[in-house]
Amino acid sequence: MLALLTNRMLTILFINMELILPLSFALMFVLISICPTSAHRHPKFSLPKDYRYFPDEKLEVPILTYIVRVKKVDQGDDSLQSNDLHSWYQSLLPASTKTENQQRITFSYRNVMDGFAVKLTPEEAKALQEKEEVVSARPERIFSLHTTHTPSFLGLHQGLGLWNNSNFGKGIIIGILDTGITPGHPSFRDEGMAAPPAKWKGHCEFTGGRTCNNKLIGARNFVKNPNTTLPVDEVGHGTHTASTAAGTHVKGANVFGNAKGTAVGMAPDAHLAMYKVCEPVGCPESAILAGMDTAIHDGVDVLSLSLGGPSFPFFDDPIALGAFSAIQNGIFVSCSAGNSGPFYSSLSNEAPWILTVGASTIDRKILAIAKLGNGIEFIGQSVYQPNNFTSTLLPLVYAGANGNDSSSNFCAPGSLKNVDVKGKVVLCEIGGFVRRVDKGQEVKNAGGAAMILMNSQIEEFNPFADVHVLPVTHVSFAAGLAIQKYINSTSTPTATILFEGTVIGNPHAPAVTSFSSRGPSFASPGILKPDIIGPGQNILAAWPVSLDNNVPSFNIISGTSMSCPHLSGIAALLKNSHPDWSPAAIKSAIVTTANTVNLGRNPILDQRLRPADVFATGAGHVNPLNANDPGLVYDIEPNDYIPYLCGLNYTDKQVGLILNQNVKCSQVKSIPEAQLNYPSFSIRLGSSSQFYTRTLTNVGPANITYSLEIDAPLAVGISIGPAEITFTEVKQKVTYYVGFYPEDKKIRGKNLFSQGSIKWVSTNGRYSVRIPIAVVFL
Ligand SMILES: *[C@@H]1O[C@H](CO)[C@@H](O)[C@H](O)[C@H]1NC(C)=O
Ligand SMILES: *[C@@H]1O[C@H](CO)[C@@H](O)[C@H](O)[C@H]1NC(C)=O
Ligand SMILES: *[C@@H]1O[C@H](CO)[C@@H](O)[C@H](O)[C@H]1NC(C)=O
Ligand SMILES: *[C@@H]1O[C@H](CO)[C@@H](O)[C@H](O)[C@H]1NC(C)=O
Ligand SMILES: *[C@@H]1O[C@H](CO)[C@@H](O)[C@H](O)[C@H]1NC(C)=O
Ligand SMILES: *[C@@H]1O[C@H](CO)[C@@H](O)[C@H](O)[C@H]1NC(C)=O
Ligand SMILES: *[C@@H]1O[C@H](CO)[C@@H](O)[C@H](O)[C@H]1NC(C)=O
């Protein structure tokens, strides 16, 4: 089953956000999360067999890129210049690598680890591994890639509140690891922007007419592909994420006339630096490490990674390793949670020093109504909205009805060749490993007039607004079933599609999307993940090429890749308004002020329109205004993670790999995961009680008193002391105690877990500092 998790498949999962996982794959996650004995198993990548992008005719043995870690150089690393480091690494390589006139070392790392990436044959790798200076050498893995309206949806308005107080993120540098960028796109204009701050040491590889400026201050390419020498975005993903985080205002942005408005990123005055580490096939680990290593050196303030792999132990996870070095340098790291939902334990990027961002819907719909011959209408969405489509009812056919192969219901390429769909409206199902837009292309190729695309039971009520090639509406699973039933009920089913354009104000928004990866965390079940959700479905942002002949070009796409840069931009705003806050303090401010209700003031729902649980929402939906003034924070210093990592039962060597220094866990008082001063609790409760502390830091006014509000999870007793806390100084720290007590098992019923919260509310009514609690019953 593990072999299913191929590079290609993961790429598809993260970029296209469209494919339903086979059920067996889904079950794998569920089983792993439930079965405690499998705690050390985790999904592994298969090796990238065909991943050989260097022209190497002479070499016939398989050659792969290895990540090599070496023992720390003791005599003060700062004295070792890059060139010395490189020569030293070079000197470690086996003799066979030196006979050829070629560069085998692809990257030397300085910040994320002591080590380098090198192209080796298996024999050479074995020889290298035997060197005393070498800690480990293993082949790299390939990771996968995981708006006009979102600022105002998130309460960001010109001249008001957070945008006003944070100067739109002025002076903050957001580093993005992605597929590259499109310099010259109006979203990256720099009118009115100051030069980058003096600390900036980055570099721009673009030259000529389309180069960097005071908005896009750096652009580097780490993809070792002879066809890719510049950090140009050939995919679109990086241009989209960069403009979501910090694109400048572009008036009249739209796609096919829809979602029209001023496109702007979350931190429109922040600087951007692009580190190209991905190409269409995925993101090589050596390039991800090189991108993070360079970004830390360059002096970015925020790192944004809309990419990831499956769960790895943190010492074996390049993003966790790079992110730890980043937070040691005060850099905030925001990552996508993954698009493997709605299954439990399907997360990427689980380390507690990372902000893990799930995806929610926004209150904008681009409406396309499926109207049936019996008069019944179903609401759906589509970005392509032709104004010349007939409102006359056309014959309606279910693609799976007469097809001669099992893929025709999915409208897979070629599957409608012999189905009579000419001039008809065709009902197709989502899934079958076919991109949604390609289904429309198949209907069009077969002569169909329009397509109604129905969700599967997994996505239920979360239709996507896509840029289709013919008139389409994408409807819910329930609507699809009703349409199938109507087709069955009559010999002459008919339908048409009515295009109604952009509508804002859906009271069910934000809702968790079906694809957003869910907790519990696999690598560290005692830390609640995801941390937060943010806008990730049907997001408009900059795109390298025009899809509709409109210029400037924008596109609407979906994924946790889209929600992550929203939070990266918000972190940049908070960095500007609170330059003294640590990355953990910024995370705490975002988490403790999150919304738990939707626009309709009801609990946040999921794709089934049922209340979303804590493993889907984390603390809830980001509320940037409140995050700017949280009152209290739960702070963590980088060294506080040492007792936590020792408590995960990692070996000294494994902890050392994360910290880039020697650690002896026997000399550290290790702590259970739940004792880390994290702004949430994730408890695995057996028959005995558990006791923890949390420490609050006052970042509000000096003299203020807070009292306690507890929402106890079902079948769990909670005791907290003291019940009231008075602060008399700014930055004052106060510790409180929390006990969790299992109650009678009968009360649990069939529930495998329950959830609640601890809230500190200031007596003046100004602050409400809430952390969520998840309790998994053992
Ligand atoms: C480079 O481009 C050429 C021509 O487009 C193509 O045939 C080749 O496969 C590309 N190589 C890689 C590694 O993408
Ligand atoms: C915006 O910020 C300025 C100065 O920082 C302040 O004087 C003004 O009151 C703020 N406006 C609002 C509406 O918050
Ligand atoms: C509608 O307009 C599009 C674009 O101009 C054209 O390709 C298409 O054939 C037209 N369809 C009908 C039914 O007229
Ligand atoms: C079934 O579909 C295949 C292509 O998918 C086609 O070659 C074949 O002729 C079809 N058979 C019938 C009976 O329609
Ligand atoms: C429609 O009819 C087909 C074939 O009889 C059947 O398999 C399917 O379940 C029916 N669908 C609904 C929604 O009733
Ligand atoms: C670490 O080992 C101790 C002792 O065996 C055990 O109680 C604890 O649950 C382990 N922690 C984790 C995170 O596995
Ligand atoms: C806070 O309260 C204390 C004692 O009541 C007082 O001495 C102090 O001046 C107050 N500080 C501020 C900033 O109001």
TrEMBL record:
Residues of the Peptidase S8/S53 domain: 169-597
Keywords associated with the record: Apoplast, Glycoprotein, Hydrolase, Membrane, Protease, Secreted, Serine protease, Signal, Transmembrane, Transmembrane helix
Localisation per UniProt entry: Secreted, Extracellular space, Apoplast
Alphabetized GO MF terms: serine-type endopeptidase activity
GO BP annotations, alphabetical order: proteolysis; response to symbiotic bacterium; response to symbiotic fungus
Stretches assigned to the Inhibitor I9 domain: 65-146
GO CC list: apoplast
Active-site residues, as the UniProt record annotates them: D178, H237, S561
Transmembrane segments: 12-34
Source superkingdom: Eukaryota
Nucleus recorded as keyword: no
PA domain ranges (all copies): 395-483
Keyword Transmembrane: yes
Primary location: secreted
Residue ranges occupied by any Subtilisin-like protease fibronectin type-III domain in the UniProt entry: 675-775
InterPro entries, alphabetized: PA_dom_sf, PA_domain, Peptidase_S8/S53_dom, Peptidase_S8/S53_dom_sf, Peptidase_S8_Asp-AS, Peptidase_S8_subtilisin-rel, Peptidases_S8_3, S8pro/Inhibitor_I9
Role played: Required for arbuscular mycorrhiza (AM) development during AM symbiosis with AM fungi (e.g. Glomeromycota intraradices).
Family statement drawn from the similarity comment of this UniProt entry: Belongs to the peptidase S8 family.
Record protein name field: Uncharacterized protein
